[in-house]
């Protein structure tokens, strides 16, 4: 494993767990503790971690726009559970839109056995995942390639999305909060999600349970603007009541 790959894995662990232990990372990666300390030093200099005795804690907030190759390593098990539930809602012949989130990749993999699906997406990785799929209609939004991500964004991508109408729009987000609603880490991604949601009969927010009571940088929409929220485990009773009051179906 290259040093950059190891640091990305450490950053993913920090994002998921909030802290790491040098001795555990040393054993996990098969390198010396001094090597791990150098990795942590570099992450600390970049403002992504704070060194502690024997390890580090995360400086990554819900507003931090992590690179895609790091995001897809975080909360993998939870995302797979969410993807299974979302996939169970999709039937042969359905038309769907998928955003460029790491969760959407797992959804894509779970529905590959279905027939005659139409997929519209701004995710380059989803297009690659489906490159050898036959019997489906697969449409790219086009647009500008977002730096540090496998996603297409911008005015032309949004215009393409708004020119179609689908059965399901499936998006993820960085946070959901009672007052701020659904939020994401940057304006371009938020605008794409708004366009995708506006083009569907059913608006599905697919988020792991760590996103509840979190606020990111840019508002995507209000809670009442989505039809279904799919997550990996039951949220609090307060959240269940809040979603019910807003007419949102909860699946977990």
What does this protein look like?
The chain is of the alpha/beta class. 38% of the residues lie in helices and 23% in strands. It is built from ten helices and 15 strands. Strands 6-5-4-9-12-14-15 form a seven-stranded parallel beta sheet, with helices on both faces. Helix 2 packs across helix 3. The radius of gyration is 19 Å and the shape is globular. The model has no long low-confidence stretch (mean pLDDT 92).
Give a nutshell description of this structure:
By secondary structure, this protein is an alpha/beta fold. 38% of the residues lie in helices and 23% in strands. It is built from 10 helices and 15 strands.
């Amino acid at each position: 494993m290259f040093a950059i790959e190891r640091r990305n894995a450490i950053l993913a662990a920090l994002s998921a767990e909030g802290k790491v232990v040098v001795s555990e990372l040393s054993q996990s990666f098969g390198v010396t503790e001094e090597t791990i300390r150098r990795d942590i030093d570099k992450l600390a200099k970049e403002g992504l971690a704070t060194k502690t005795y024997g390890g580090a804690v995360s400086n990554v907030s819900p507003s931090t726009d992590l690179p895609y190759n790091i995001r897809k390593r975080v909360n993998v098990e939870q995302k797979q559970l969410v993807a299974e539930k979302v996939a169970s809602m999709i039937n042969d012949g359905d038309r769907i839109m998928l955003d460029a989130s790491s969760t959407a990749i797992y959804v894509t993999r779970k529905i590959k056995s279905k027939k005659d699906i139409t997929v519209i997406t701004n995710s380059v990785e989803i297009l690659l995942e489906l490159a050898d799929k036959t019997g489906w209609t697969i449409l790219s939004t086009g647009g500008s390639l977002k730096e540090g991500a496998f996603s297409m964004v911008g005015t032309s991508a949004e215009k393409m999305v708004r020119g179609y109408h689908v059965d399901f729009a499936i998006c993820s987000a960085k946070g959901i909060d009672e007052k701020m609603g659904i939020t994401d880490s940057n304006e371009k991604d938020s605008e794409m999600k708004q366009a995708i949601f506006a083009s569907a009969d059913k608006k599905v927010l697919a988020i792991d349970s760590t996103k509840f009571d979190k606020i990111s940088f840019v508002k995507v929409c209000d809670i009442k603007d989505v039809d279904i929220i799919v997550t990996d485990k039951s949220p609090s009773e307060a959240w269940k009541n809040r979603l019910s009051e807003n007419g949102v179906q909860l699946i977990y």
